[in-house]
Amino acid sequence: MNCCNIDTSHFDLIIIGGGSAAFSAAIKASELEKKVLMINEGLPIGGTCVNVGCVPSKTLIRTAEQFHISNYPNFTGIKPGETKIDFKEVIRQKSEMVSELRQAKYIDVIKDDPNVTILEAYAKLIDQNTVEADDTEYTAEKILIATGSTTFVPDIPGLEEIIYLTNETLYELEKLPEHLIVIGGRYIALENAQMFSRLGSKVTVLQRSFRILPDEMPDVSESLKEYLKDEGIEIKTGVKIKSVEKRSGKILINAFVKDEDEVIEGTHIFVATGRKGNTSGLGLENLGIELHKQNFIKTNEYMQTSAPNVYAAGDVTGEFLFVYSAAYEGSLAVENMFGVSSTKKDYSVFPWVIFTDPQVAGVGMDENEAYEKKINYEVSTIWLKDVPRSIAARNMKGFIKLIRNKDNDKLIGARILASEGSELLMEISLAIKYGIAVKELKQMFHPYLTLAEGIKLAAISFDKDVHKLSCCAV
Fold first, then answer.
1. Which runs of consecutive H residues, i.e. helices, occur in 9-148?
2. Cα 110 to chain center, whole Å?
């Protein structure tokens, strides 16, 4: 990896961005013996995930989980003491890990790669082969835009006059908020709402829709809502925020909540109202590159934009805003742009997770999607109160729901609400991907007293009442 001293102005590939899509693309291009210039500005190398997204949030979520369990154990034989939280130390340890992973998983990965040069500068497209950065023009056969996304901040009167938090600033706080108001009710909002509540903040969630996670079925969103409320999180739905103001050190939100005026008071506001593409100032208009939704770049099935030599990958495309999909797209874009393959992106089997507790995990279709596609579907749901592992752990929140095509006995989707629901996804994903029938899942050995046994129980319960099974689900 070169930096600073750039001995050429022409490259095979110029990548604008420095996150997971950019790195995946750079690594793939280097494998193809292509000369790469990566131009990054804004967040440090590593982009959203390692700096202000997945990594810091998930380590803080685990911190909060351990603190919560120590104070509220599931077993009556455990008597909680006076466990305390050192929030400043929590943030320090988080920052240390972020720095270590940024170095180990990004910088060190390409530091000795002679094919990759990194330039810290703001890039602007001049034409489909030319990029300007630091008052210098660089040319390339192909260009990849992988600039990621940032929080979409709604136009709320008074919001810009106060200091509000986003995922880029939330994890840098050194003092625990007394009362955190979370604007939004989807995955980023809910993960952080529960995390800060468990760490000791009073938390109020304000959601515009009449359900949190409005894209999910009511059994998922309503069950999760009740679990969060049981932990003391206040959740208000059907909220229309009229204005925000700061008065006497407090933040006041004037809102319309289910047909009634209400003033919600707190000390901090966290805005988690969706994402927008980082496309402003890139010069996309110079090439006529099409955008969609909230300033995201529109791509075809090969990750190509409306400009022939320009591709885009990762969050900036606005489709699947996950680090693993970004990495997939970065590599795919390079393969397609250099003719190594002509492969269409494939998200037909895409597992995803919301890291609340219990976690929400899903893959494939839900009931609404199956109905819209006119599939003759059937649903089997087993509640964790009927799964031996959950009973033994005294953590029986949630359920496992499988959806199958009745015509061929094959799974088409699943939704899981469970403490470690994410760990169950890949068995189901592989079953969907490779057409493994439900009857075959029933016959597979699943170790007793594992959460994975719940998959087998759910499969069996398509046709049998699990309450009439022996302990080992036979």
1. 20-31, 47-52, 54-71, 87-102, 108-110
2. 25
Q: Give DSSP secondary structure letters for 179-218.
A: EEEEE--SHHHHHHHHHHHHHT-EEEEEESSSSSSTTS-H
**Phi and psi (nearest 5°) for 273?**
-110, 35
Q: Does domain 352-464 have CATH number 3.30.390.30?
A: yes
Q: How far is CA 271 from CA 205, 356, 360, 390, in A?
A: 10, 18, 21, 35
* Residue-wise pLDDT tens digits, 359-406: 999 999 999 999 999 999 999 999 999 999 999 999 999 999 999 999
Residue ranges of the chain assigned to CATH 3.50.50.60: 2-151+276-337, 159-273
Q: How many angstroms separate the CA atoms of 295 and 148, rounded?
A: 11
pTM to 2 decimals? 0.95
* CA–CA distance, 107 with 112 (Å, rounded to integer): 9
Q: Which helix (H) or strand (E) holds 422?
A: none
Looking at per-residue pLDDT, the higher value among 375 and 5 belongs to 375
Residue ranges, comma separated, of all CATH 3.30.390.30 domains in the chain are 352-464
In this predicted model, what pLDDT tens digit does every residue of 305-318 receive, in sequence order? 999 999 999 999 99
Q: What percent of the chain has pLDDT over 70?
A: 98
